[in-house]
TrEMBL record:
GO molecular function: diguanylate cyclase activity
Recorded catalytic activity of this chain's protein: 2 GTP = 3',3'-c-di-GMP + 2 diphosphate
InterPro entries: CheY-like_superfamily, Diguanylate_Cyclase, GGDEF_dom, Nucleotide_cyclase, Rev_trsase/Diguanyl_cyclase, Sig_transdc_resp-reg_receiver
EC identifiers of the protein: 2.7.7.65
Lineage start: Bacteria, Pseudomonadati, Pseudomonadota, Betaproteobacteria, Burkholderiales
Domain Response regulatory: residue ranges: 9-124
Span of domain GGDEF: 167-304
UniProt cross-references to Pfam families, sorted A to Z: GGDEF (PF00990), Response_reg (PF00072)
GO BP term, pick one: phosphorelay signal transduction system
Keyword set, alphabetical order: Phosphoprotein
Name of the protein described by the UniProt record: diguanylate cyclase
Length: 312
């Protein structure tokens, strides 16, 4: 049997404790096993733990497996979790119903240990392969950061979550100062190397759960910082400016310093009902514009009221 991968999380949702014990014993060597004894508890645990694989009983009291699966499919954070239905119904019609509902597989009761282990192992491997492909599709080829398409999806999800729970969300726009002059003087290869070094700095500063750094376009980057107050975001912006300057990348044509620097626009707020992601990005962009107008190599926190001055 293959050794468990530490990142594999298997969630068992079943209202029969004996079945949970039996399944847990069968699959415990293939990953971290969690369990819930009701559909509602399973959904809550899935949202907290983001399992790769869910073994879901069809016949449960209250919310049955099909209802739980429908909620999983509707949740953008959970729809990538693979669901294997576990049921005493073994007719072709029952199997078709499970697969039509979006499950990746079907395990009939009574449970056969070898069959359960083989199917779980197969779908964990598929999930790992899909994760690799997903990472490649979401990655910027030059810097290795997330790309803008991935950022757009994640910021929409985080914005909705922060508005629902009334938490402060932080957005950071980073623009490498005088980058066209850098390319003109040192060449595009050194320009690419410069962007990679800046990207690595951004990645190092976005390590907490939910934080992400992405390439927004050209020499511009964006950082998403969940649950971050304006005061904390201002400190982060100042720190990031210092870190980028400390890279010491020579830039003789720069206007702010003899090395590469960055201008940074910050926006942090608790999203209100009439707020939008686009509005927050616009506010951060206006703050970035102000940082450039003030001499570059600095960070500026957006005002609550944002003017209509065009960006750069």
């Amino acid at each position: 049997m293959t050794a468990a991968l530490p990142e594999n999380t298997i969630l068992i949702i079943d209202d029969n404790v004996d079945t949970i014990r039996l399944l847990s014993a069968m699959v415990r060597e293939q990953g971290r096993v969690l369990f819930a004894t009701s559909g509602a508890a399973g959904l809550e645990l899935a949202r907290l733990q983001r399992p790769q694989l869910i073994l879901l009983d069809v016949e449960m009291q209250g919310m049955d497996g099909f209802a739980v699966n429908e909620q999983l499919r509707r949740d953008p954070d959970l729809r990538s979790s693979a669901v294997i239905f576990v049921t005493a119904q073994s007719s072709p019609e029952a199997e078709i119903a499970c697969l039509d509902a979006g499950a990746v597989d079907f395990i009939p009761k009574p449970l056969n240990a070898a069959v359960v282990q083989a199917r779980v192992r197969t779908h964990l491997r598929l999930q790992a392969a899909l994760a690799v492909l997903g990472d490649l599709a979401n990655q910027d080829g030059l810097t290795g950061l997330y790309n803008r398409r991935y950022f757009d999806r994640q910021v929409a999800t985080e914005f909705a979550r922060h508005r629902r729970h009334q938490l402060p969300l932080g957005l950071v726009l980073v623009d490498v100062d005088d980058f066209k002059l850098f390319n003109d003087r040192y060449g595009h290869q050194r320009g690419d190397a410069c962007l990679r070094e800046v990207a690595e700095t951004l990645q190092d500063g976005a390590r907490r759960p939910g934080e992400l750094a992405a390439r927004y376009g050209g020499e511009e980057f964006v950082v998403l910082l969940p649950n971050t107050t304006p005061a904390a975001l201002a400190r982060y912006g100042d720190w990031l400016c210092r870190r980028i300057g400390a890279l010491g990348i020579p830039h003789a044509a720069a206007s702010a310093a003899p090395h590469v620097t960055a201008s940074i626009g910050l926006c942090a707020r608790i999203p209100a009902e009439n707020d939008t992601v686009q509005g927050m990005l616009h506010a951060a962009d206006m703050a970035l514009y102000r940082a450039k107008r003030a001499g570059r190599n600095r960070s500026v926190l957006a005002d609550e009221s944002v003017s209509d001055v065009p960006a750069r």
